[in-house]
Amino acid sequence: MGRKKSMVKLVLLRHGESVANQQNTYTGWSDVPLTAKGRAQAEQAGAQLAAQHIPFTAVHTSILQRAIVTADIVMDAIDQLYLPIHKSWRLNERHYGALRGMNKDHSRELFGQAQVAKWRRGYSDLPPLLAHTETDRKYAGLPASILTRGESLALAWQRVQPYYEDMVVPRLRRNENQLIVAHGSTLRALIKYLDQISDADIDKVEVGNGVPIIYTLDERLHVVHKELLGQ
Ligand SMILES: O=C(O)[C@@H](CO)OP(=O)(O)O
């Protein structure tokens, strides 16, 4: 009789629509709230996940309210409010530098379609940097090496990967299902890693607000199945 292969679930979820998403402005580390539509998207994601009956042992999110509130709504909907929730700046959205707050259509008028496409979806392209690093007290303890004046997706991955390796992988290895509620680019970086997408092809990957992505992983944590709920 062969040994039963263990399979574990890793669920990724981008927050519901934020005020900045609604206004079509660059967000990054801006700490903007969900819209009413964003809350409804989180509730719908929670209902879809509830139907999957996945018992998690931990939830991971950023220190930005749009992700934290989405995580809370989902934990309630799946009746797992008791779970530990780990919040880390490492799961924050990619820092959009001096673009933050700017309307995305306006940025295309200013810099051109091609440049904006690279900033938004390229792997190594750095947005124009802020003149100063973050002053918000929640970032006071950040390592000095972290560039908080703007990040490429590649730079964001450099701070997401250690979180994934230290906080998520050990739990997955113990066969514990994990839920990560984060942001478009943070999740694109993780999806790039899990799906082994090349630097060039990551520009085709989009992550929708409130669409749960369920990965089934084998004992080496390689992807054996991927499903987007409600798609
Ligand atoms: O503004 C942002 O921070 C992100 C996600 O909302 O936008 P984009 O899709 O342009 O990378």
From TrEMBL:
Record CDD domains: HP_PGM_like
Molecular-function GO term, any one: phosphoglycerate mutase activity
Active site per UniProt: H15, E93
EC number, as in UniProt: 5.4.2.11
Record-linked InterPro entries: His_Pase_superF_clade-1, His_PPase_superfam, PG/BPGM_mutase_AS, Phosphogly_mut1
Keyword Isomerase recorded: yes
GO biological process: gluconeogenesis; glycolytic process
Class of enzymatic activity (EC top level): isomerase
One Pfam family from the record: His_Phos_1
PROSITE patterns listed in its UniProt record: PG_MUTASE (PS00175)
Function: Catalyzes the interconversion of 2-phosphoglycerate and 3-phosphoglycerate.
Family: Belongs to the phosphoglycerate mutase family. BPG-dependent PGAM subfamily.
PANTHER family per UniProt: PHOSPHOGLYCERATE MUTASE (PTHR11931)
Protein name: 2,3-bisphosphoglycerate-dependent phosphoglycerate mutase
Organism: Schleiferilactobacillus shenzhenensis LY-73
Taxonomic path: Bacteria, Bacillati, Bacillota, Bacilli, Lactobacillales
